[in-house]
Amino acid sequence: MTHTSSLLRLLDERGYIHQLTDAEGLDTLAAKQVVPGYIGFDPTAPSLHVGHLVSIMMLRQLQRAGHKPIVVMGGGTGKIGDPSFKDEARKLLTEDTIAQNVASIRRVFERFLTFGDGPTDAIMVDNADWLDKLEYIPFLRDIGQHFSINRMLSFDSVKTRLDREQSLSFLEFNYMILQAYDFLELSRRAGCRLQMGGSDQWGNIVNGIELSRRVDGTQVFGLTTPLLTNADGSKMGKTVGGAVWLNEDQLSHFDYWQFWRNTDDRDVGKRLRLFTDLPLDEIERLEALQGSEINAAKIVLANEATKLCRGEDASKAAEATAQTTFAGGGLGEDLPTIEVGPEGIRAGAACTALGFVASNGEAKRKIAENAVRLDDQLVEDVALLIAVPAGESRKLSLGKKKHGIIKGI
Q1: What would the mean pLDDT of 318-347 be, rounded to a whole number?
Q2: Which residues pair with 396 in a beta bridge?
Q3: Among 296, 327, 358, residue at a domain's last position
Q4: Is 155 found in the same domain as 76?
Q5: What is the pLDDT of residues 217-254, one digit of tens each?
Q6: Domain count across the chain
Q7: Terminal Cα-to-Cα distance of the chain (whole angstroms)
Q8: Which positions are annotated as binding L-tyrosine (predicted)?
Q9: 206 located within any domain
Q10: In the chain, what is the greatest distance between 2 CA atoms, to the nearest angstrom?
Q11: Residues with Cβ < 8 Å from 17, sequence gap 6 or more?
Q12: Residue 238 in domain
């Protein structure tokens, strides 16, 4: 359909829209007024990862189109954990851990969104502010009556778990009710009219829309994004070395930049649309590049994505490190680094410490595959002792794309 609002035009053109509960109704509303829209993020770790980035960018696009982003930190729902499409229950976190994770995660949003008191300025709220105060019996009576167990069991996020005969606790089953209540509460507190999220959140979003209609008679809307996969069908953001974290204390600037630089040729255009602010005509020019020229588009993607998440200085430093490491054969300053004393470090342990692999066992396999080099010389023994004199450095590499520095102290 042809959209009249700049919001839906922008989201549609850049590939954010998978499902909409009422496209015409939302389009009409967004064309005539500021629409506050929210996405929730459960603080299950000190940092969000690149799998969350499409949601963050969607809030950014909401603001760019003249509307109001609401970031909901799941200080309340994080105590349960979203069971959607999970094989098993999440580990329950303590309140102190949740509070520390929330504080750590907040920093990322300040780079993508403009916060303030204006009509289109972003705000951040914590659903613990209202969920922690709920009383069980009144909540069951006032809210629980609007939910059908038959309907809840029909959602794919629940059916998948049950079909695999994996236990779904009553605690987790309540998650979708609490998320629906979040939407009702945000509608009342902040005039929120839109909830957005990944395609796995469709059932939860629909529940919130129906609850708002039944309890308050308020019309609200839902929008989900497509499941993001790489051209080879694998899930975006899953790498051999683990999650691609957004916080720099979880992942170096260079490794973050390199993740984008290593994009498959077939995914360049899609990622430029979703994860940068570049104009569409420039993206069309870049994705049309052929052969080795597509590498120039990947560098633009890496620079733009890193600039948004880590800042312009980090983007420039990472690109300079890549040029030094790959083109010049030297040691870029932004490479992941470990320091060792006179006792040195074993090759397998160094691979793990630099984040190349998740375990010493995996390091052993990579070395057996002839994938690890020390100063460009093949490493054949996982127990090889790497000694580095004080003040000097050596380069350890896994394959052609992962490099790190071992410094002697």
Answers
A1: 78
A2: 374, 404
A3: 327
A4: yes
A5: 999 999 999 988 888 887 786 554 578 999 998 888 99
A6: 3
A7: 63
A8: 38, 175, 179
A9: yes
A10: 72
A11: 8, 11, 223, 225
A12: no
Angle in degrees, CA 304, 73, 207, rounded to 5? 105
What the block records as the tokens of 257 is 């930049």
What is the chain's mean pLDDT, rounded? Answer: 89
Does 202 share its domain with 290? no
- What sign for the dihedral angle of Cα 399, 402, 403, 404? negative
- Looking up tokens 């059916």, which residue turns up? 159
16 is in an annotated binding site: no
Structural domain ending residue among the three candidates 284, 303, 327: 327
Q: Which residues have CB under 8 Å from 148's CB, separation 6+?
A: none
Tokens representing 169?
């606790």
33 is in an annotated binding site: no
At residue 203, φ and ψ (nearest 5 deg) are: -60, -45
Decide if 98 contacts 79 (C-beta within 8 A).
Answer: yes
pLDDT confidence of residue 325: 74
Tell me the two tokens of residue 218.
């308020």
**Are residues 14 and 139 both part of a single domain?**
yes
Please give the residue range of the domain that contains residue 30. 6-225
136 is in an annotated binding site: no
Q: How far apart are CA 203 and CA 193, in angstroms?
A: 17
Pair 73, 105: CB distance under 8 Å: yes
Q: How many residues does the chain have?
A: 409
| pLDDT tens profile 31-89 | 999 999 999 998 989 999 999 999 999 999 999 999 999 999 999 888 876 665 454 55
CATH number at residue 396: 3.10.290.10
Nearest-angstrom CA–CA distance, 76 and 205? 17
Catalytic center residues: 44, 49, 52, 86, 90, 179, 200, 235, 238-239
3-state secondary structure of 352: helix
Q: Any known ligand binding at 258?
A: no
Tokens of 23: 């496209």
Q: Are 20 and 26 in contact (CB under 8 A)?
A: yes
